[in-house]
Amino acid sequence: MSTDGSGDGTPLTRAQLRALRAAEEAAEAPEAPAQHPVAQEPQHPVPPVPLPTTPVQVPAAPTDPAPRAAVPAPEAPARPAPDSHSAEDPARPPRRLRDRRFTLTLLSVLGVLALVVAVLGVVSLTQGPRIAQVQVNAQQAIETSGSRLILSANQRLEPVDAEQVTVTPAVPFTVDAAGRSIGIRFTVPLNDETKYTVSVKDAAATGGGPTADLTTSFTTPASHILLLQRSADGDDKIFTTDLAGKRARPVFAHPKIDDYRATSTLLVVVVEEDDGSHLLVMNRDGSGEHELKLPGEGYVSSVQVSDRGNLVGYSYSDRELTETSGRASVLVTQSLSGTGKPSIVQVDGKEASVAEWQFVPDSSSLLFIDFNGALGVEDRSTDAGVKPMGIAASILGVSRGTYTAIVERSDGSIVQLDLTSGEESALPASDPDYGDADTIVPFPGGTLRHIVQRDADGMPTGQAVVRVGDKGAANLVTEVSGADAILQTCVSPSGQYAAIVVAPDLPDNPYDTLQLPLPTTLHTQLIELDGDRELPVLSGFDISWCGQAPQP
């Protein structure tokens, strides 16, 4: 405010002083001579500026020492540009006040965020690592070995070894960990309808702080199986069903189905036509069918699949076969996708006729005995060729996840053969001793052995299936007597269930006329090996757990 008064002692504001000076200067200015007579507008006196009764506060402005000329009013008010510094709406706060409020708000938000980050950091340091995500394919886990459970923590971890990890119920596993992830690989298939709990003890973050136990659980689904039924007066059919047999439905039908095998996603079927065998591949629900090209017109038997290698293998014989021409019982493999040509196994550069063979589970390798009795193993995914494994009379089985085969040597001894090193050891005898086994089916934790009981003259008097542990402890699973016969013994991937195929009243049970002839009536008995669950007897044979067809 100015110290100049208005005559009555009331101080004037600077704006009032400027208005008063402008009026005085206008009164003192000489009138310009008129050039032409013009109509004169009536003059109206300018009313005096009312004096305020109280001081008026205005923003400070620099004092201009020079007298200011009166500024004429503009013809029309101009709209200020977006960035104009014109006078603001008096109802709004001054710009500097708004800028200050924005700055304070921004600083408050940043402060809150910093506080949240600090709190979370403190919580992380005081609680230790926690599980952020769990990944596991429970369906795959009950069907194949090698499935994985991956734990992802909320922070990077120090190295984790297998001694820190426990799985309940107990199953063999391996551990690999990197960064925030801990991978647990189950080396054998898991049981169905079972809750598994995985714990990692004393997991530590790389940044320090307390350790923590990481624990998670998952439940495996119920098993679904495939089963083949042959018909004397209609189509043969492959059914899918649960273990109770209450949800059976056909997925494939054909007048003559010789054999089939299943992977976790595909179905491979051998059918008979007038010109010989045909090999079909489809999804497990019967959709997407396509045919694989064979080495020629001929017949297929002993079909098997390698899920891990995505291969199908079979014994092939030409339809036109003489003593000097044609191929007999050569071993063939080819891709399940249908790409590439059929590949025939060779020994010393020649196509070999094979007496029996099996895929090594969880690999693309196969084990076979040729017509000369030579035992060999070959990985079909490489060009390494056949690795000789001595002389053998029979292949009784190959264990999952161990690369170990059970073979009968030419002298009649039964041994466990490590297919990697070639080392062998005697197969433990059953305790109590149930006698020699005709067939042996390995599974995680032991074997199922099909025993034929004979009288003093060597005539069969009964048959039984015995479960034998890794150290020889044995117990009876099932037995038949009289005219009934056991034709096939299979076990679920984890060893939880057994499937025993029985031909009732064999003398009065006529055989069909297919390339693989079997009794017309066959029943599959399901048995839970580690429990007392009552399971039904199903009509049909060759359950999808089986690695190869029954032997007539």
Can you tell me about this structure?
The chain has 552 residues and is mostly beta strands. 10% of the residues lie in helices and 40% in strands. The strands form nine sheets. Strands 21-22-23-24-25-26-27 form a seven-stranded antiparallel sheet, with no helix packed on it. It has a four-stranded antiparallel sheet with strand order 1-2-5-4, with no helix packed on it. A hairpin with a 2-residue loop joins strand 12 and strand 13. The N and C termini lie far apart (121 Å).
| Total beta strand runs | 35
Based on CA inertia axes, which overall geometry fits?
elongated
How many DSSP H or I helices? Answer: 3
Are there runs of 5+ residues with pLDDT below 50, and where?
32-46, 51-74
Read across the widest sheet, the strand sequence of neighbours is 21-22-23-24-25-26-27
Largest pleated sheet = 7 strands, antiparallel
Mean pLDDT: 85
| Cα separation of the termini | 121 Å
Radius of gyration: 46 Å
